[in-house]
Write a structure and sequence with these properties.
The strands form five sheets. The chain has a seven-stranded mixed β-sheet with strand order 13-23-24-25-21-26-27, sandwiched between helices. It has a six-stranded mixed β-sheet with strand order 3-4-2-1-5-6, with helices on both faces. 45% of the residues lie in helices and 17% in strands. With 857 residues, it is of the alpha/beta class. The protein is elongated, with a radius of gyration of 37 Å. The protein folds into six domains: 100 residues, MutS, DNA mismatch repair protein, domain I, CATH 3.40.1170.10; 130 residues, 2-Layer Sandwich (Nucleotidyltransferase, domain 5); 135 residues, MutS, DNA mismatch repair protein, Chain A, domain 3; 97 residues, Orthogonal Bundle (MutS, DNA mismatch repair protein, Chain A, domain 3); 244 residues, Rossmann fold, CATH 3.40.50; 42 residues, no CATH class. It starts with a helix and ends with a helix. The protein has 30 helices and 27 strands.
Amino acid sequence: MKQYNAIKVKYPDAMLLFRVGDFYETFGDDAKKAAEVLSITLTKRGAGSDSETALAGFPHHSLNTYLPKLVKAGMRVAICDQLEDPKMTKTIVKRGVTELVTPGVSLNDEVLQSKKNNFLAAIHFDKKQLGISFLDVSTGEYLVAQGNTEHIDKLLQNFAPSEILVQKQNKQQFLEVFENRYYSFYLDDWVFQTEYANETLQNHFEVKSLKGFGIQDLKCGIIAAGAVLYYLSETQHNQLKHIQNISRIAEDNYVWMDRFTVRNLELYNPNSVNAVTLLDVIDKTISPMGGRLLKRWLALPLKNIDSIKNRHELVKHFIDSDSLSQTVTYQLKQISDLERLVSKVATGKANPREIVLLKDSLKAILPIKKELEKSKNKAVSALGNQLNSCTDLIEKISQTLFDDAPVNLNKGNAIANNVHQELDDLRTISSSGKQFLDAMLARETERTRISSLKIAFNNVFGYYIEVRNTHKDKVPEEWIRKQTLVSAERYITEELKEYETKILGAEEKIQALEQEIFSKLLQYIIQFVDLIQNNAKTIAKIDCLLGFSVLAIDNNYVRPIMDESTDLDIKNGRHPVIEKQLPIDQSYIANDVVLNRNQQQIIMITGPNMSGKSAILRQTALIVLLAQMGSYVPAHNAKIGIVDKIFTRVGASDNISMGESTFMVEMNETASILNNISERSLVLLDEIGRGTSTYDGISIAWAIAEFLHEHPSKAKTLFATHYHELNEMTVTFERIKNFNVSVKELKDNIIFLRKLVSGGSNHSFGIHVAKLAGMPNMVIHRANKILKKLEENNKNDEVKEALKQTQNEDLQLSFFQLDDPLLENIREEILATNIDTLTPIEALMKLNEIKRMLLKK
């Protein structure tokens, strides 16, 4: 217990699994927690005495069953093993922590999810910006970035780390900015130092500078990356040969989507319990590597037109070439998780069965490589050339291990025959033991003429020959008597003892030799880590592109035409998720959307609730996203000018825990949009202003639409609203066009046609929707009566008139209509200025001059 307490002091915040003989034991508070989480028996040690302590344990061979449960419960687990053989010491066995497993640092298959990364992240707070680093120790992916809190927040949402490391002094700041959304661990301040981080990274990668990785200018990011490596050494993860590269997440290369947009579009996290995400619908990948890469592509759609077209070209080739697709599909099914297998090799945690899987996976790549390389399409053959055959490695593993090698090396029969002569000899001895004893028994029976001779074994003095008392006078002189029983005597012979030494020693030697040969094999494989990782990346890419081709064929998607314009022209676009959820007998109502910065910049969509306004908004964003990921799109045809930012304000969501109402959240999200739009942005606004009173809401919605129209960026916008007053905007603002989602009115009912048609609508049909929802007839009847009353006293015309008036006032700049000679002078001064030839300095001077004229007054 002294030994236990000394080790526990070093790991106070971790659950300590303490190896005692064949068990892992937990004591005290740890035992109480373990018993609860693992549903194991809680007992006591030294019951009734001063040293009474709670105790709970499980067999050491069940570690892989129980460890994942503890980690999934959000615990840090320190595994304390015996560091020496109990047979070799007469004092207490030395013990020490061999691994600290935390949610962000795990190589256990039961903790990891095959199609999800398990990232450990670190955040460094600087005065102006934040640095962040992500590392998946199970795949070797190591990424770094820096930017403002909004950018870091978005990355956290995309990469969803299992654990975040933060500097202790920034704990409060971290919680204020990112709330309690993530499992976090706080490190000492000294870890977050520039010199220390640079030195740590340079030592790990064995380089003199980080320029080769293209991250040297990310000062904050490097500090975060250094903290990640420090944490790995602290958690006893020192074999990290699989972490061979670190790369930056280049913000400029990808479409910007703030976290509201990612959430609103339900790309990979559902907003409600049974909701289906876009990832659920488009994931046709076969391999775990492909599944992980697809999520990355979805989180970071491309902006580079050539890269996008390259992906489209490859998808087209898979669609057109049936034999290629069939071969690749079949072979992908034979490939295991290469990235995680090679990480296990590098960290010394791979077992013989996994090495056989690695070999089989590399073999399965060969037909894919051959098939791709023979293509006449340059993009396809280039993909094949990126794959490495690894024939030497495949051969080495095939020669060294049996194909049916066991998971546990100690079970034996992992190393193949003809690898090691001594091992083969020992195996012969071990397996021919029974034949040897049978032959000896037959020989001695014939020589001594004792018919009832028996050869047996016990733990006290090993192998012996047993002779019944009736025959003991026939025993040869050279036999040595070892034990006398009531009716028999037991003897040993020199030959029997020699054989015993051989056979018992053989088992131990076989085990030691297999361990040694397997360790050498792992060392040999480590030199191929880089090649295997590159193969895994290429296979992941092939898997995603093949998945896109399957998606396109199964769901009738088309190749979008991508160009450098700012236009968006979608013919018969469909919502990729909703169309998969419809009943079999129902087809999705497709819609056209045309947006550009010259004629139709803002589409104002009116129509009743439930008519499908939100679906049209979302499907437009999802079609653009799919296109820029490299996928085909759900439409009849689509022409898409590259989009650099997608903003959405869709649906209501309270953030009551932070003291924010629906309206406050809505305004926050809208402010973020208006402050960040660019000329290539796509903006989707749904029911802006509905969280406040009608006149407030109309005023805010009008002002936002006006701002977007007058903003120099002229961002393409879809604006769904139930404020029919906004239809008036098209009169004054030339690039705002009215559309509505049509409905068919019957006597007491409506049918939603879900078709987008030109022109505004005048009803919201809220009462009809209430009726469809099953509202009691009494309530519906009363609502209709009240509506009629309100319509009789309708003030809508007054609202419209007021809006027009304010608009005219603003546009006419009544400021200059005042009868004031000074203002007249200023007006003349401004009109006489040629803005086109004015330099910035001259403009400031002119402004100063006008200011002085006012001050003189």
